[in-house]
Amino acid sequence: MEARPGTTGRAPSTRWREVLGLIALLGLAWLPPTPAPANPPVAIAAAANPLRPPDTSSPRATLQSLLTNLERVHAIAIDPARPRNDTLAPLQRAARTLDLSEIPGRLAANIGIEHALLLKEIIDRVGLPALAEVPDARSVERHDLTRWRIPNTEIVIAQVASGRRAGEFLFSPETIERLEDDYERVAALPYLPEATPGLYDAYISTPGRGLSLGWGRGLPDSLTRQWLGQTLWQWLATGVALGLGTLLAGALLRAGRRLDRRHQENGTTSRGGTILALGAVVGLLLGLEYLIDVQINLTGAVLIAVKQGFVLVLYGLLAWLVTLLLNQAAEAIIRSRRLRPRGIDSQLLRLGFRLLTIIAIAALVIDGAQRIGLPAYSVITGLGVGGLAVALAARETLANLFGSLAIMFDRPFRIGDWIKMGDYEGTVEDIGFRSTRIRTFYDSVLAVPNAYTMNATIDNMGKRDHRRVYTTIALRYDTPPERIEAFLEGIKGVIRANPATRKDGFHVVVSDLGAHGITVMLYFFLTVPDWATELVERQRILLEVVRLADRLGVGFAFPTQTLEIDATPEQPRAPTPPLPAEQLVEIARDFGPGGRLGRPRGLGLHIPPHEED
Q: How many CA atoms lie within 13 A of 29 on its CB side?
């Protein structure tokens, strides 16, 4: 359609959209303005920020951080209205100016505060150069400084080369190592003006965290006297705490053992009482350490010795606890799966948990060594060298251990099996980690080393599906051949009639013409579960053979010798009547093919299995 004059060519729907959009814009224009967002909080001043780390960007900044924090500690400590815990934060900040990278982490907090105070005591007696003479950040950058030494001393502030505090200037580890000796050398010197006297003595004698310059004034002088850096009251409190702790730990362990004995009287082998007692003793030990370290507040070399002793005892108890827990876990699995207590599966399970115990104890040794300041790599190296020495010294023991592993994985026999092993024969009674115990048939017990067992040829009689019986019977030479053949067939019938015998693969034959009689061989198999049943079934068959021989009139031969006097001078031997040659030849032919006298198939009572078809 052509647009009218004076109008646009747009469709009516498009015009309505424009109108609605214009109305919406007018509505938005009449809305009240959105308020501006509130100003974000302004960061507090750096000097007032309690989270600000001490400035260690230069020797001057490090030295100033140490002095400022310890002067703040002194100001808090002389104010009786301030709690001594308020001194803890500036003490920790002062300790952060020291390079404690060579101090065990377990001791760093204590040693850091003590040595920061020692450093302040030395500076308060020997003095410092003017602060302007100490290199600042500009001097460090301009002269590329990495070390600065307080004049006329061996106190060095050095830049850390690596680690998490790389680039910071801290009092060097060598300085920290010499501080106690340096303090002893200057302790008799008077304090300089504007010093903060008594901070170190107050710290080592104040109980709890922090320090107080007036805490010990109410105590008798005898209790505040120092010996080996500790006051007498601290020695007394430590002795009482250790004594009471030892008595309580002993009582807990005795109670645990009594509980285990009650379980044993009830038929169980649980060590739950000892495990609970050990857990309680570990908690008691940690509580004692906290009491001595924090509340009694031992310091210096005495604290280091005590804490290292606690580490040794603690990790010894943990090793004992881990051993018991893993052993009990193995026994619990054996009981839950209803395994034979001395079976191969149970032994393998116990061995696996013992290996876990060894690994856990090795991990405890490494962690404990790190806590007392020994590097992990040296401990691991020591364990490797020690393990090699033990392996060389205990070759036989290790050979027996590997032999027990071979027995458990290869399973050539199990408990209850009758075995023949070299010169040893008997029933397996126990398979241990060092030896296998065999109960012989004369009721003694042989302990055969597993190293020998691993290399020996083992004949496991207990693994037989069928048990062979092989024996011989001697019959008298005057027994007629027909009776002998009937006797043989009767024995075969006895074997077939017994329900415990295999009905194939047996043999009952005349096997030889012996020196004392005609030898009959019996060879057959019994299908029985054990040796006792085998003996009974063998007896039944042999007694049937005896009854059969009695009914047939077959006599058994004895190993006898008969002396026949063929002739004497008075009675010469009668000569054998001669037979014609033709008759001899005829008799021989009658036992040959087609002869009248020969019976090559016997009496015909028995057809061998291979001819039945």
A: 6
Here the tokens at position 584 are 């001899």
Band of pLDDT at residue 314, cut at 50, 70 and 90: very high
Q: Determine contact, residues 59/148, Cβ cutoff 8 Å.
A: yes
**pLDDT top residue among 417 and 5:** 417
Most confident of 142-146, 225-229, 245-249, 585-589: 245-249
Q: What is the pLDDT of residue 206?
A: 83
Is the CB of residue 605 less than 8 Å from the CB of residue 599?
no
Of 19 and 187, the structure prediction assigns the larger pLDDT to 187
Reference 541, options 506, 572, 586, 590; nearest CA is 506
Q: Which residue has the tokens 């050539």?
A: 412
Q: Report the alpha-carbon angle 471-531-414, nearest 5.
A: 130
Kindly report the backbone phi and psi dihedral angles of residue 159, in degrees, each rounded to the nearest multiple of 5, phi listed first.
Answer: -80, 130
Both tokens assigned to 596: 């009248």
In the chain, helix, strand, coil percent, each to 5? 55, 10, 35
Q: Give the count of beta carbons closer than 10 Å to the beta carbon of residue 204.
A: 21
Q: Give me the phi and psi of 478, to 5 degrees please.
A: -85, 10
Q: What is the mean pLDDT of residues 551-565?
A: 80
pLDDT tens profile 392-402: 555 566 666 66
Residue 231's nearest CA partner among 263, 196, 207 is: 207
pLDDT over 90 percentage in the chain: 29
Contact criterion met (CB below 8 Å) for 263 and 273: yes
Residues 6 or more apart whose CB falls under 8 angstroms from that of 458 comprise 412, 413, 419, 420, 421
Considering only CA atoms, which of 110, 125, 137 is closest in space to residue 302? 110
**Within a 10 A sphere around the Cβ of 70, how many other Cβ atoms?**
25
**Residue 266: band (very low, low, confident or very high) from pLDDT cuts 50, 70, 90:** confident
Helices (H), 372-480: 376-393, 395-410, 450-455
| Single-letter amino acid, residue 501 | T
Position 3, amino acid: A
Q: Alpha carbon 438 to chain centroid distance?
A: 29
H/E segment holding residue 585: helix 581-590
